[in-house]
Design a protein that fits this description.
- Two copies of one chain form a homodimer.
- Chain A starts with a strand and ends with a helix.
- Chain A has two domains: about 180 residues, FAD/NAD(P)-binding domain (3-Layer(bba) Sandwich); about 100 residues, FAD/NAD(P)-binding domain (3-Layer(bba) Sandwich), CATH 3.50.50.
- In chain A, about 25% of the residues lie in helices and about 30% in strands.
- The longest helix of chain A has 20 residues.
- Chain A is an alpha/beta fold.
- The first copy, chain A, has six helices and 19 strands.
- In chain A, the strands form five sheets. In chain A, strands 1, 2, 5, 6, 7, 8 and 19 form a seven-stranded mixed β-sheet that branches. In chain A, strands 10-17-11-12-13 form a five-stranded parallel β-sheet, with helices on one face.
- In chain A, helix 1 packs parallel to helix 2 and helix 4 packs parallel to helix 5.
- The interface between A and B is large, with 46 and 52 residues.
């Protein structure tokens, strides 16, 4: 039995790992990957301490900082269930591997939200993608659509105007992202903006051949002639494994106190999987540090 | 009139500056210095992204990131009063300089309570430190003193018995912290407890070479042979300027919601000056980012 299990290897889980290791807590880090959502980011300009750094380079920095400590890491581990024991917690993976600990930090982050329109699931990986950073270059010289109006959609569109022949940006609302990104986007010469349009259907059989959208005010339909569709409409929390342990918020997040407590003694949560007000790398890192220090205090009092 | 004034140039204020600037908010940064408490830290090993960095180098990184943006900075500005106007706030400095803004973020941090003994100021950063969490590992295998009898001193001593060769704990009073922490401390094999001793003088010229203490009952002097001195007699929040605007906690901190709201519309607070559960650079940076995004949302709704 470990003193502490940290579930998740994004900025929150890695910050928690550093803080737990420095407190000499006997810690196990369980995660599907290292870096979490940072893996889908091209360049990071708002992590305090780095004026500009590629997402993968920032992850490498985080990872080398964790790797200097003797904490056990099981990467490629997909937790599906967390159960409460009398004196701790038990985590079970998809493949049935079980680990136990006295305290647990859930830092499992978020996954991209789907449009839930016909054709979307069928054509995922065949033109429909949720990661402009990962898949962008595949669509070099093609016509693509970017769906969404927030920062991640703006960043995806800014990446794609450099790569694609033409970018159709589609948002249900006016653009809500950072002014600095909106200004940059307005300079693009190969972009059409369709605001207050909803997506109706992904067209195509084997591969994406287009996207049907509809003006929410006039009801007018428009067919976008694209071969790639980048869906950037937000994220869903990865909180399924703990949903029997505590009530989630109505958006499926783990509700926490300002100190990362979940209300279940010994169970803490940090970062994007929680109802913390903003989803940012530096915020998740701060929350992960809080969670490790809270877990340390809990373990000291046992 | 500015849209936003950020009071304080430590990690919280600088993170807020980066986030505000990226939102193109017309921002004024007012601070006595750049870096705040990070200036008193020897080496930083727990800021996610830097395995080891000197405090001053980390501040330089933060500063260059802020300096790339066109936000106005007045450094050397000591705010003494914040007043509520009809549509915003007015800040007045010690020297009478007045600035106004629609929204305000207070990120003025804390100052350590000092022992006020000879050698203390001269050897700060040269063996004298006010942060065991930050600087503890630097003293691996050395003999150190921990000054104080409350929870932060006990936690510092508990951390240091695992790291240092020997820990000399010195308190003016009997130990006042949590029993569970005191019990744990009593199990340590490499700790001497000097209760009812007052500190007299830090010894050393370039680096700490010892600490002179005095028994307050017998008047007997004792020289402690240590190279590190952890002063953990508490921190004072720099919240005087806003004390007429809102009720402070009983330790003088600004009480905030998890989203950095103070309850006064347009007034946000972030970092160590608030009742956020832990005082750490990465946590303060995360809180500063939250505050800027909250202020942005407030300004957008005006």
């Amino acid at each position: 039995m470990y003193d502490l299990i940290i579930l998740g290897g994004g900025p929150a889980g890695l910050a928690a790992s550093v803080y737990a290791a420095r407190k000499r807590i006997n810690t196990l880090l369980l995660s599907q990957d290292i870096g979490g959502q940072v893996n889908w980011t091209t360049g990071v300009e708002n992590y305090l301490g780095y004026q500009f750094i590629e997402g993968r380079d920032l992850i490498a920095k985080f990872q080398e900082q964790v790797d200097q400590f003797p904490i056990t890491q099981k990467i490629g581990y997909k937790a599906v269930k967390v159960q409460k024991l009398k004196d701790g917690f038990e985590v079970t993976s998809e493949s049935g591997d079980v680990y136990q600990s006295k305290a647990l930090i859930v830092a499992t982050g978020k996954r991209p939200r789907r449009l839930n329109i016909p054709g979307e699931v069928e054509l995922t990986g065949r033109g429909v993608t949720y990661c402009a950073v990962c898949d962008g270059p595949i669509f070099t010289g093609q016509r693509v659509a970017v769906i969404g109006g927030g920062n991640s959609a703006l960043e995806a569109a800014l990446d794609m105007v450099k790569i694609a022949e033409w970018v159709e940006m589609v948002s249900l609302t006016p653009l809500t992202g950072d002014a600095v990104l909106i200004e940059k986007l307005q300079q693009a010469k190969n972009l059409t903006l369709s605001l207050e349009y909803q997506t109706e259907r992904v067209l195509g059989t084997d591969l994406v051949e287009g996207l049907m959208i509809k003006n929410i005010k006039t009801g007018e339909f428009k067919k976008l002639d694209v071969t790639g569709i980048f869906i950037e409409i937000g994220l869903s929390p990865n909180a399924d494994a703990v949903k029997d342990l505590l009530p989630l918020t109505n958006t499926g997040e783990i509700p926490i106190s300002c100190g990362t407590e979940t209300g279940v003694p010994g169970l803490f949560a940090a970062g994007d999987v929680t109802n913390v007000p903003e989803k940012q790398i530096v915020i998740a890192a701060g929350e992960g540090a809080k969670a490790a220090l809270a877990a340390h205090r809990f373990l000291q009092r046992l």
